[in-house]
Protein backbone atom coordinates (compact mmCIF):
# COMPACT_ATOMS: atom_id res chain seq x y z
CA UNK A 1 0.00 0.00 0.00
CA UNK A 2 2.83 2.40 0.84
CA UNK A 3 4.36 1.80 -2.59
CA UNK A 4 1.11 2.77 -4.32
CA UNK A 5 0.91 6.00 -2.31
CA UNK A 6 4.51 6.80 -3.16
CA UNK A 7 3.88 6.15 -6.84
CA UNK A 8 0.79 8.38 -6.83
CA UNK A 9 2.65 11.14 -4.97
CA UNK A 10 5.51 10.97 -7.48
CA UNK A 11 3.12 10.97 -10.44
CA UNK A 12 1.41 14.05 -9.05
CA UNK A 13 4.78 15.77 -8.57
CA UNK A 14 5.83 14.93 -12.12
CA UNK A 15 2.56 16.26 -13.52
CA UNK A 16 2.91 19.47 -11.53
CA UNK A 17 6.48 19.91 -12.74
CA UNK A 18 5.39 19.36 -16.36
CA UNK A 19 2.63 21.94 -16.01
CA UNK A 20 5.02 24.45 -14.44
CA UNK A 21 7.59 23.81 -17.18
CA UNK A 22 4.96 24.42 -19.87
CA UNK A 23 4.02 27.70 -18.21
CA UNK A 24 7.64 28.85 -18.06
CA UNK A 25 8.23 27.82 -21.67
CA UNK A 26 5.17 29.75 -22.80
CA UNK A 27 6.23 32.84 -20.84
CA UNK A 28 9.74 32.64 -22.30
CA UNK A 29 8.31 32.39 -25.81
CA UNK A 30 6.08 35.41 -25.23
CA UNK A 31 9.03 37.43 -23.88
CA UNK A 32 11.19 36.52 -26.88
CA UNK A 33 8.40 37.59 -29.24
CA UNK A 34 7.97 40.87 -27.33
CA UNK A 35 11.72 41.51 -27.45
CA UNK A 36 11.78 40.84 -31.20
CA UNK A 37 8.90 43.26 -31.75
CA UNK A 38 10.49 46.04 -29.65
CA UNK A 39 13.92 45.70 -31.23
CA UNK A 40 12.46 45.58 -34.72
CA UNK A 41 10.27 48.65 -34.06
CA UNK A 42 13.25 50.75 -32.99
CA UNK A 43 15.22 49.65 -36.05
CA UNK A 44 17.96 47.95 -34.06
CA UNK A 45 20.25 46.38 -36.69
CA UNK A 46 21.24 43.76 -34.13
CA UNK A 47 17.63 42.88 -33.39
CA UNK A 48 17.23 39.48 -31.84
CA UNK A 49 16.27 36.97 -34.48
CA UNK A 50 14.65 34.05 -32.73
CA UNK A 51 14.69 30.66 -34.38
CA UNK A 52 11.31 29.65 -35.74
CA UNK A 53 9.42 27.29 -33.47
CA UNK A 54 9.18 23.76 -34.84
CA UNK A 55 5.79 23.12 -36.37
CA UNK A 56 3.95 20.41 -34.48
CA UNK A 57 3.25 17.25 -36.39
CA UNK A 58 -0.33 17.07 -37.59
CA UNK A 59 -2.64 14.54 -35.99
CA UNK A 60 -2.44 12.34 -39.09
CA UNK A 61 1.31 11.97 -38.64
CA UNK A 62 1.24 11.18 -34.93
CA UNK A 63 -2.06 9.34 -34.80
CA UNK A 64 -2.83 11.19 -31.56
CA UNK A 65 -5.17 14.07 -30.88
CA UNK A 66 -3.26 17.02 -29.44
CA UNK A 67 -5.10 18.54 -26.45
CA UNK A 68 -4.66 21.81 -24.53
CA UNK A 69 -6.46 22.23 -21.22
CA UNK A 70 -7.18 25.47 -19.36
CA UNK A 71 -8.78 25.67 -15.94
CA UNK A 72 -7.98 27.90 -12.98
CA UNK A 73 -8.84 25.09 -10.53
CA UNK A 74 -5.42 23.50 -9.99
CA UNK A 75 -6.79 20.19 -8.70
CA UNK A 76 -9.20 19.83 -11.63
CA UNK A 77 -6.48 20.83 -14.11
CA UNK A 78 -4.09 18.23 -12.66
CA UNK A 79 -6.81 15.57 -12.69
CA UNK A 80 -7.59 16.32 -16.33
CA UNK A 81 -3.87 16.24 -17.13
CA UNK A 82 -3.53 12.75 -15.67
CA UNK A 83 -6.67 11.53 -17.47
CA UNK A 84 -5.51 12.87 -20.85
CA UNK A 85 -1.95 11.60 -20.49
CA UNK A 86 -3.25 8.14 -19.58
CA UNK A 87 -5.28 7.98 -22.81
CA UNK A 88 -3.07 6.60 -25.59
CA UNK A 89 -4.96 8.35 -28.39
CA UNK A 90 -4.41 11.80 -26.83
CA UNK A 91 -1.32 13.95 -26.40
CA UNK A 92 -1.30 16.80 -23.88
CA UNK A 93 0.35 19.87 -25.40
CA UNK A 94 -0.22 22.19 -22.45
CA UNK A 95 -2.10 22.97 -19.26
CA UNK A 96 -2.99 26.59 -18.52
CA UNK A 97 -4.31 28.26 -15.37
CA UNK A 98 -5.95 31.24 -17.12
CA UNK A 99 -7.18 32.48 -20.48
CA UNK A 100 -4.02 34.38 -21.43
CA UNK A 101 -1.81 31.40 -20.68
CA UNK A 102 -4.09 29.19 -22.80
CA UNK A 103 -3.80 31.63 -25.70
CA UNK A 104 -0.01 31.76 -25.34
CA UNK A 105 0.27 27.97 -25.25
CA UNK A 106 -1.98 27.62 -28.31
CA UNK A 107 0.11 30.19 -30.17
CA UNK A 108 3.28 28.23 -29.42
CA UNK A 109 1.88 24.75 -30.03
CA UNK A 110 -1.56 24.71 -31.70
CA UNK A 111 -3.75 21.89 -30.38
CA UNK A 112 -6.37 19.85 -32.20
CA UNK A 113 -8.71 20.36 -29.22
CA UNK A 114 -8.67 23.03 -26.50
CA UNK A 115 -10.63 22.17 -23.33
CA UNK A 116 -11.45 25.54 -21.77
CA UNK A 117 -13.10 26.41 -18.47
CA UNK A 118 -15.60 29.21 -19.06
CA UNK A 119 -15.03 30.93 -15.74
CA UNK A 120 -11.31 31.57 -15.33
CA UNK A 121 -9.11 34.65 -14.93
CA UNK A 122 -7.50 36.49 -17.80
CA UNK A 123 -10.58 37.16 -19.91
CA UNK A 124 -12.68 34.07 -19.32
CA UNK A 125 -12.86 30.99 -21.52
CA UNK A 126 -14.84 32.86 -24.15
CA UNK A 127 -11.90 35.18 -24.79
CA UNK A 128 -9.52 32.23 -24.98
CA UNK A 129 -11.90 30.42 -27.37
CA UNK A 130 -12.12 33.41 -29.72
CA UNK A 131 -8.39 34.06 -29.77
CA UNK A 132 -7.37 30.40 -30.09
CA UNK A 133 -9.78 29.94 -33.01
CA UNK A 134 -8.30 33.07 -34.62
CA UNK A 135 -4.75 31.74 -34.13
CA UNK A 136 -5.55 28.16 -35.11
CA UNK A 137 -8.88 27.90 -36.97
CA UNK A 138 -8.72 24.10 -37.10
CA UNK A 139 -8.62 23.86 -33.30
CA UNK A 140 -11.87 22.54 -31.87
CA UNK A 141 -13.02 24.08 -28.58
CA UNK A 142 -14.59 22.03 -25.80
CA UNK A 143 -16.17 24.32 -23.19
CA UNK A 144 -16.00 23.15 -19.61
CA UNK A 145 -18.26 24.79 -17.07
CA UNK A 146 -20.04 24.36 -13.77
CA UNK A 147 -23.12 25.95 -15.34
CA UNK A 148 -25.45 23.82 -17.42
CA UNK A 149 -27.87 26.25 -18.97
CA UNK A 150 -28.82 27.53 -22.39
CA UNK A 151 -27.27 30.98 -21.82
CA UNK A 152 -23.86 29.47 -21.03
CA UNK A 153 -24.07 27.17 -24.06
CA UNK A 154 -25.06 30.03 -26.36
CA UNK A 155 -22.28 32.27 -25.05
CA UNK A 156 -19.56 29.71 -25.65
CA UNK A 157 -20.96 28.68 -29.04
CA UNK A 158 -20.79 32.31 -30.12
CA UNK A 159 -17.14 32.31 -29.05
CA UNK A 160 -16.43 29.32 -31.30
CA UNK A 161 -16.90 26.26 -29.12
CA UNK A 162 -17.88 23.04 -30.85
CA UNK A 163 -18.61 21.08 -27.67
CA UNK A 164 -19.83 21.61 -24.13
CA UNK A 165 -19.24 19.54 -20.97
CA UNK A 166 -20.39 20.18 -17.41
CA UNK A 167 -17.61 20.00 -14.80
CA UNK A 168 -19.46 17.29 -12.91
CA UNK A 169 -19.02 14.94 -15.88
CA UNK A 170 -16.94 11.82 -15.36
CA UNK A 171 -13.46 11.57 -16.87
CA UNK A 172 -14.87 9.04 -19.36
CA UNK A 173 -17.53 11.56 -20.46
CA UNK A 174 -14.91 14.28 -20.90
CA UNK A 175 -12.72 11.95 -22.97
CA UNK A 176 -15.74 10.98 -25.06
CA UNK A 177 -16.49 14.67 -25.70
CA UNK A 178 -12.86 15.33 -26.72
CA UNK A 179 -12.91 12.38 -29.14
CA UNK A 180 -16.27 13.46 -30.56
CA UNK A 181 -15.13 16.95 -31.55
CA UNK A 182 -11.65 15.84 -32.60
CA UNK A 183 -12.91 13.57 -35.35
CA UNK A 184 -11.89 14.89 -38.77
CA UNK A 185 -14.81 16.20 -40.78
Please name the CATH topology of the domain at 59-182.
Answer: Rossmann fold
Average predicted local confidence, pLDDT = 78
C-alpha end-to-end distance? 46 Å
Uncertain spans: 45-55
The SS-based structural class is: alpha/beta
CATH C-level class of the domain at 59-182 is Alpha Beta
Strand tally, please? Answer: 5
Query: Largest sheet at a glance?
Result: 5 strands, parallel
Share of helical residues: 40-55%
Structural summary, described in words:
The chain is α/β, with parallel strands linked by helices and 185 residues long. The protein has a domain at 59-182: Rossmann fold (3-Layer(aba) Sandwich). The chain has helices at 2-41, 59-62, 74-86, 99-108, 124-135, 150-158, 171-182; strands spanning 65-70, 90-96, 113-117, 140-145, 163-166. The chain has a five-stranded parallel sheet with strand order 2-1-3-4-5, with helices on both faces. It is globular and about 60 Å long. Residues 45-55 have low confidence and may be disordered.
Amino acid sequence: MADERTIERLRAAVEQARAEAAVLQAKAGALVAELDAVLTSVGDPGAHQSQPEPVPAPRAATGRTRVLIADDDKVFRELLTVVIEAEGSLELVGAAADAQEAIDLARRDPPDVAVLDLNMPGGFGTRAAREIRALAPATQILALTALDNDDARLEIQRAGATGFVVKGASPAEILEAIRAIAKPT
